[in-house]
Design brief:
The protein is built from 8 helices and no strands. The protein is mostly helical. Helix 2 (19-26) packs across helix 3 and helix 2 packs across helix 5 (69-83). The chain is elongated. Mean pLDDT is 82; it is low at 117-122.
Length: 122
């Protein structure tokens, strides 16, 4: 196996993830339908709730993934930091601007990682 750049590793890491989970990791705003999947990853809907959502939220189908954004975030951040300062800054800026979606990620990145300008407000 040849040398893989951090950018290739990031792409390989993200490819199998549903779009809502990629957006949650990047701390970008989720659509209403993506929010249902995000919520379902933490508090799985019952069969009755799923049926109701399928009729009331037109077009929504559950996209389940066996791990949550918070479980994947440490590895995602490790790869991002190796990708260079531009990717890390993008993530930190998103985390700072995202409000509750990534409040914990922004705080933790600012406290535990060096050079996260968005998370610390610097």
């Amino acid at each position: 196996m040849g040398f893989r750049t951090p950018e290739q590793e990031l792409e390989d890491f993200l490819v199998p993830l549903p779009q809502w989970l990629q957006n949650a990791l990047w701390c970008v705003a989720l659509t209403d339908l993506e929010n249902f999947s995000w919520y379902d990853s933490y508090f799985p809907f019952t069969a009755d709730q799923l049926e109701e959502l399928k009729t009331t939220a037109a077009g929504w189908q559950p996209e389940r993934y066996p791990r949550t954004a918070e479980e994947l975030r440490p590895r995602f951040e490790q790869i991002l930091q190796r990708c260079g300062p531009a990717q890390w800054k993008r993530y930190c800026d998103n985390a700072k601007a995202s409000g509750p979606l990534c409040a914990d990620a922004a705080r933790e990145a600012g406290e535990t990682q060096k050079g996260c300008p968005g998370a610390r407000g610097t």
